[in-house]
Amino acid sequence: MTTFPNCPKCNSAYTYEDGNHLVCPECAHEWMAGSEMASSEDEKVVKDAHGNILQDGDSVTVIKDLKVKGSSSVLKIGTRVKNIRLVDGDHNIDCKIDGFGAMQLKSEFVKKI
């Protein structure tokens, strides 16, 4: 009998193989057999509007005019944002924009430069 590794999400011992994936029946988590489970599961992947993976320190461009909440000003299309920082939450990019200051942006409204 083949022994499969415990689920990386809930640590269940009842995992089984489905094709080239391993599946946990308790939490319904699926992962590739033989992959580095811990590192890929802990890090959340953030993608821009075009599907490019974003990382801390990247530079991005705003692809749509965005209203700034609590202000009458607008963040114009084409505004470049340097040295972004990825955070958890709905607005997953934390940055400083010249002329506006510290802001949080959604990754769906930017593209990687």
TrEMBL record:
Top-level taxon of origin: Bacteria
Family from the record: Belongs to the YjdM family.
Protein YjdM C-terminal domain mapped to chain residues: 46-112
One Pfam family, short name: Zn_Ribbon_YjdM
Protein name, entry field: Alkylphosphonate utilization protein
NCBIfam families: phnA
Signal peptide interval: none
Location of the Protein YjdM N-terminal domain: 3-31
